[in-house]
Amino acid sequence: MFPKPLPALEPNTFAFEQLPLVKPTGFREYDARWLFPKEINLMGVQALGLGIGTLVHELGVRPDIVTGHDFRSYSSAIKLALIAGMQAAGLRVKDIGLALSPMAYFGQFALDCPCVAMVTASHNDNGWTGVKMGANRPMTFGPDEMGRLKEIVLGGTYQYRDGGSYEFVEGFAETYLKDLKTRAKPITRKLKVVAACGNGTAGAFAPRLLEALGVEVVPLDVEPDYTFPRYNPNPEDMEMLHAIAAKVKETGADVGLGFDGDGDRCGVVDNEGEEIFADKIGVMLARDLGKLHPGATFVVDVKSTGLYNTDPELQAVAVKTDYWKTGHSYIKRRVNELGALAGFEKSGHFFFNEPIGRGYDDGLLTAISVIEMLDRNPDKSMADLYRALPKTWGSPTMSPHCDDEVKYGVVETVTKRFRAMKEAGEALAGQKIVDLVTVNGVRITAEDGTWGLVRASSNKPELVVVIESPVSEARLRAMFAAVDGVLRENAEVGAYNQTI
């Protein structure tokens, strides 16, 4: 029997080569992330593969699974170790090679595989690895499945089965890009588009798709380099957005599009170099799609702008908005449950249901939707469409360090503190708290509509803080100072990755 994983092992020892290492905190709410090889070794990845196969059979799902890997120096080795475990557990594996996460999700449909296990650390820094998994297309695992998988793997209770097999699917990228092209409407407007890929996986695919749409492509950091020398491929990080903005201004592009490390997210910069946070892009797309689909429902995460509820144009076409938990699996599932037209996350995960997409998040399909929006508004620039939104002042997503072992407890403590303040009528940043939303962390709203969010990151040892004010930048900063003051009551909260 394959050995039971250990939570810690010293590298450069015989034990490290003879036993599986799997740090328990790598099992997140809806996917898995570890530092490799500090927190998981290749035998640990095999154990994970055995666990995935065991869980698939336990769920009664047909054991056909598609897998691929992102562009990192170690991802191919991780994938092969995962495949070894999945085969041993009786899964029939179809390997699509180097891929974007949405390419693997598409493979569930195109290759008739109910299951997926995509090896990727997404936007995490170099050194991280992980797996995004699902057994019910287009959904990915949520807390229940991840909890059970953790039990199986850490307990070493995986089950061997006959019938496992392996097939490499040659040229699958062409099938994926062709499908996206057929979903796009002909572009009649002449457009110049910056395609920024952060030297990550999207560089192999995004420029090709955009060229096929007939737009002029300005490549930015599309060359592969898994050291990510310029910036981390994360369109939520200001460093990447600044680089896109500079290239847009330099080339006179109509729009800048930035893709994360595994291509399931898309960030946008307008033609004037203004960096538009993804929740505002979602409002713009909801306005555009709401005219084509009046009465449509959109799902948005709790980090997103309040404009979804207050924008007059969305109200005019009777659009309905559902605020839900942050996380690609949560929003994906909610979009499916409600039959929503689309779901939008502030992180840049956008989920389009039929007739636009298949319900999963795809940064390239998001790029198509942005380009089509511009094409449907030939007399307006991206900046014009952005200026047409009611003005609010919003922060980027800010993440203070907080260890995985304590971050959820800190959020619980902070939530209790804000609840006590509300009940006592205590002022926060000079105003009363009028609303607390605790569906995912805590979102605190003041009398003038200014709000702040604190939640635990689902994939890194961090908290997540977002602030927005419909009143002024001064109110934005006051709310941030007040929320941060409460956070600083907890010694476990460290420095931010970026702030306003």
Automatic annotation (TrEMBL):
Cofactor(s) listed: Mg(2+)
Keywords assigned by UniProt, alphabetized: Isomerase, Magnesium, Metal-binding, Phosphoprotein
Alpha-D-phosphohexomutase C-terminal domain sequence ranges: 427-484
Pfam families: PGM_PMM_I (PF02878), PGM_PMM_II (PF02879), PGM_PMM_III (PF02880), PGM_PMM_IV (PF00408)
Domain Alpha-D-phosphohexomutase alpha/beta/alpha: 26-153, 175-273, 279-391
Biological processes, Gene Ontology terms: carbohydrate metabolic process
InterPro entries (alphabetical): A-D-PHexomutase_a/b/a-I, A-D-PHexomutase_a/b/a-I/II/III, A-D-PHexomutase_a/b/a-II, A-D-PHexomutase_a/b/a-III, A-D-PHexomutase_C, A-D-PHexomutase_C_sf, Alpha-D-phosphohexomutase_SF
Superkingdom of origin: Bacteria
GO function terms (MF aspect): metal ion binding; phosphoglucomutase activity
Enzyme Commission number(s) from the entry: 5.4.2.2
Sequence similarity: Belongs to the phosphohexose mutase family.
Entry protein name: Phosphomannomutase/phosphoglucomutase
Species annotation: Methylobacterium dankookense
